[in-house]
Amino acid sequence: MPSMSLDMVVLRLKEERLELLLEPRQSPPFAHSWQLPARRIDERRDRDLDDALQRLLAEWGLGVSYSEQVCTLGDQERDPRGWSTTLVYLCLVGPDMQPSRGQWRPLAELDGVTLAFDHARLIGKGLERLMIKSRYSTLPVQLLGTEFTLSELQRAYEIILRTPMNTAAFRKRIHRANILADTGRKRTGKQRPASLYRLDAPPCILFDQLMHGAEA
């Protein structure tokens, strides 16, 4: 029987850079290469795909996090041991998430990392989903933790979409979506105090229009 597994592209936004969760592979094939969080589906233990996903999240200590299925890939080439199929998931966690295994690696430095199997392709699929969906939804909120300022939220969109945003237009869009609740607290630091908000809506809300950069 062809093997079937779950692979997760797990991302966090830390100090204004996207980081990917990887771990070194200990056994062949691709020993000593870096791999994504993954597990084979166990027909005896996993009642359905959600059960398998929850087991994978628990194995990595990812706790409560946002996840969604991106695509299914399968062929004779992705694993030298034979035909295999994987269900690729995108998983977003807060900036302070410390999993029980693996290491955070900056996305900007992945060119120098040797990846196992076809994990470079899987990462590309996850990032593509993140970028496309961030143009029309509140998905980037899942990278910010429980409380955040409007400036931090805007910066998350800018980093993901790789373009500056018009601040006035961005805030109008967010307020019109009616997804945030003011916590009554403020973030203090070098800049003037800024109000802290929390998500007061389901994990991912769709906008009525695409999010555009400042040049639009």
Automatic annotation (TrEMBL):
Residues 141-199 form the NrtR DNA-binding winged helix domain. It comes from the Bacteria. InterPro entries: NUDIX_hydrolase-like_dom_sf, WH-like_DNA-bd_sf, WH_DNA-bd_sf, WHD_NrtR. This is MutT/nudix family protein. It comes from Aeromonas molluscorum 848. The lineage of its organism: Bacteria, Pseudomonadati, Pseudomonadota, Gammaproteobacteria, Aeromonadales.
